[in-house]
Structure to design on (465 residues):
């Protein structure tokens, strides 16, 4: 039986041999250690992230403020580290609540990218799931399923849309509870590896948290997405159009403003989502208007312009 | 086992090196993930070189982005089988490759008894030779218990 090696494995004496080398490295790090907020900002991309967020997303003041706070904490943590003070990773699990179309999913997608660039998550990918991806159909199916999803999300952000569906109070043998327990365990123990974002409508999320107090207390950031004002919706429409290489002519812009005012008073208004749908329908009408005239040569301007008539033809104006 | 002077089973990558630390394993796993490999964890208590297919611990992990998930599975396996051989394998699904691209041992029993040469006399004065693992002389649950 030969259980002890007959020769020294190369580099196995690393601990003894390498004692001299780490010391100069720490000295170098201390020499370059940041002393002011500006130093850290220069070294990281925090400011670029903030500017991009401001220009890309309309409204959403509470959300932007929270991201700014998280970014500030990162900067201060770096400064603390330079003084040898400990900087534990903060809990970054979040809950997004708000009415339909207020940008919960959009912000979650951006959040993965933002947290990655701020250095809070290692890979910065987003895994978006719903109840079906986490909860199994028979006994013993849920745990492996949930764990697989969690493994995929490691190093990034796990986004659970319509999270309140996980808990079904009317069925006490529902497997959703099992998924919640596994989720809680990972949220607590592997905070460095994974950020969980729950999203859902305000009232139903409140009920969900009431029946799962453990979940509520493990989420540090409860962010409420406010409804957009009419002005903000106009700005969103403008951004959507330019991203699709369309534009309103001045009359159409007035018509769309009027359209929004009418649509806001109607039931089932889903904020930005309704704006997107309205624009998609306007594009369809523009297309059939141009289609009708077969022999005409169309200019780029005509192909990109949405006219007043395309908006006015909407059902909303008929009522 | 004088032909293998490290006194340890040397299968797969890095097996002549000192054991990798978890941080080093994470770096190897990340390398594989960047190449698009799917990692899986396997264990066995029979380290015979011709024992190719070890027992799977959980499913192979496809679509991972970060090493943390693989390490979590590996640590669960270590907790369940502290005295077994455990290896990580990376499967390359590229068309035409479709085989294991990386494989290395991440856990070993505290004592590795090694292998013996078995001679079998057959017709005439012929001899047949084979390799035999001392560990497998004992029943499955009692191997490597010291």
């Amino acid at each position: 039986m030969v259980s002890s090696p007959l020769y020294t494995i190369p580099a196995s004496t690393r601990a003894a041999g390498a004692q001299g080398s780490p010391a100069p490295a720490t000295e170098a790090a201390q020499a370059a250690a940041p002393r002011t907020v500006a130093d850290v900002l220069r070294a990281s991309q925090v400011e670029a992230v903030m500017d991009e967020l401001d220009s890309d997303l309309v409204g959403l003041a509470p959300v932007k403020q929270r991201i700014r706070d998280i970014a500030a904490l990162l900067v201060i943590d770096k400064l603390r580290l330079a003084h040898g003070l400990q900087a534990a990773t903060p809990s970054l699990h979040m809950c997004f609540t708000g009415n339909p179309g207020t940008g919960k999913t959009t912000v979650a997608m951006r959040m993965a990218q933002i947290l990655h660039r701020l250095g809070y998550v290692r890979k910065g990918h987003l895994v978006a799931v719903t109840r079906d991806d986490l909860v199994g159909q028979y006994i013993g199916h849920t745990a492996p399923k949930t764990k697989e999803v969690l493994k995929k999300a490691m190093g990034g952000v796990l986004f659970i849309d319509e999270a309140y569906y996980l808990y079904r109070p009317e069925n006490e043998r529902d497997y959703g509870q099992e998924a919640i327990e596994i989720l809680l365990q990972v949220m607590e123990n592997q905070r460095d590896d994974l950020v969980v974002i729950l999203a859902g409508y305000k009232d139903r999320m409140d009920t969900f948290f009431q029946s799962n107090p453990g979940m509520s207390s493990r989420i540090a950031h409860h962010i409420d997405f406010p409804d957009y004002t009419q002005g903000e919706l106009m700005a969103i429409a403008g951004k959507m159009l330019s991203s699709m290489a369309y534009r309103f002519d001045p009359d159409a812009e007035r018509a769309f403003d009027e359209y929004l005012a009418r649509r806001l008073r109607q039931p089932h208004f889903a904020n930005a989502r309704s704006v997107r749908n309205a624009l998609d329908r306007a594009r369809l009408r523009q297309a059939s208007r141009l289609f009708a005239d077969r022999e005409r040569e169309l200019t780029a301007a005509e192909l990109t312009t949405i006219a007043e008539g395309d908006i006015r033809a909407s059902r909303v104006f008929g009522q | 086992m004088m032909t293998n002077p490290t006194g340890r089973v040397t299968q797969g990558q890095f097996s002549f090196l000192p054991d990798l630390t978890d941080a080093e394993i994470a770096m190897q796993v990340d390398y594989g993930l960047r190449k698009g490999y799917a990692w899986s964890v396997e264990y066995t208590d029979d380290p015979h070189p011709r024992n190719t297919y070890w027992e799977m611990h959980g499913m192979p992990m496809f679509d991972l982005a970060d090493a943390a998930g693989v390490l979590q599975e590996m640590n669960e396996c270590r907790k369940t089988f502290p005295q077994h051989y455990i290896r990580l394998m990376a499967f390359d699904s590229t068309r035409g490759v479709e085989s294991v691209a990386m494989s290395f041992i991440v856990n070993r029993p505290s004592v590795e008894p090694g292998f013996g040469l078995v001679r079998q006399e057959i017709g005439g004065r012929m001899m047949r030779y084979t390799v035999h693992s001392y560990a497998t002389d004992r029943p499955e649950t009692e191997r490597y218990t010291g």
Remarks:
- Chain A has a mean pLDDT of 84.
